[in-house]
Amino acid sequence: MHNKLICQNKQSDGARNQTHTKKMKIQTLENTSTEDLLLAFNNSFENYFIPLHLSLEQLEFKLQVDNAQLDLSVGMFDDGKLVGFILHGLHAATQTVYNGGTGVIGSHRGKKITKQLYDHTFSLWKERGIQHAQHEVVKENVVAKKIYEDVGFAEHRLLNCMRTKEAIEATNPYEVLAFSGDDMILGWMEDDMIPTWQNSLQSIGLQKDRLLQYLVKEKDEAVGNLLINAASNRILRLNVRKDRRRQGVATALLSHASQKNPNLSVLNLDAANEEVMGFFASRGFDVFLQQYEMTMDMDD
After folding, report:
1. HSE of 49, CA atoms in CB hemisphere, 13 A
2. Rounded to whole angstroms, how far apart are CA atoms 107 and 94?
3. How many other C-beta atoms lie within 10 A of the C-beta of residue 40?
4. Number of helices (H) and strands (E), helices first, in the chain?
5. What is the pTM of this model?
6. pLDDT tens-digit series, residues 289-299
7. Considering the chain, what percentage of its residues have pLDDT values greater than 70?
8. Which value, to the nearest 10 degrees, does the dihedral of the CA atoms of residues 142, 27, 65, 200 take?
């Protein structure tokens, strides 16, 4: 949810890069193969709230769009085997890291491995000047949420994940244009809420080769925009210019996209935004998962 696509920095001084805990060892992941990471990832999430089993290609893509930095990601190794990990992406402009996945395989749970990994991570962040950290945790996963709170994260907002399986009918049809690749326009979009990591312009730009963009234009100017990951049929952005809202533009965009594949989904919408929630609900979308976005400022 490609080694060449991951930042591959040279390994730091071993004194900074490794921590020993009895028979186990903590170290960063830049020298860990994607295949070994995949095995640990799938073993860690085999009994998760939502079934999660990635292929090698899917993990490579996840690392790509999360902008994973393996020299900022850490793992616990037991006799050379990766048994726990935290993957971190980076937004360099704001010195913000994103937890793209934390996992401990079943045989090693109950050993406070996640806390040990974070204790090691904080020293890495200090060296790199990291200022902020964020991630999401499933609402029902109270054990994980407590662990994150214990290491310093705080609940920021509740997020809704929604999906529909039915085609959407447009009551006010507009001509919808389709674009992909370098023909897409990303910079003009207006947001009513701060996007989560996966829906940020950085993440969108890193998956441009898989995106479909639908536009409604008037007088050669875009008034509505819909971005979809063509592989997952997941909505990344839906924006309508403020002066053209409540005129059927957004519905026309969704309708056009859903005619090709009605199984649309949209992740991590701010649950407190009643207007956005109401819009998607009225178009047949149902909430299938809720997550907390959690944040931490290193100055705190």
Report:
1. 12
2. 37
3. 23
4. 8, 13
5. 0.87
6. 999 999 999 87
7. 90
8. 60
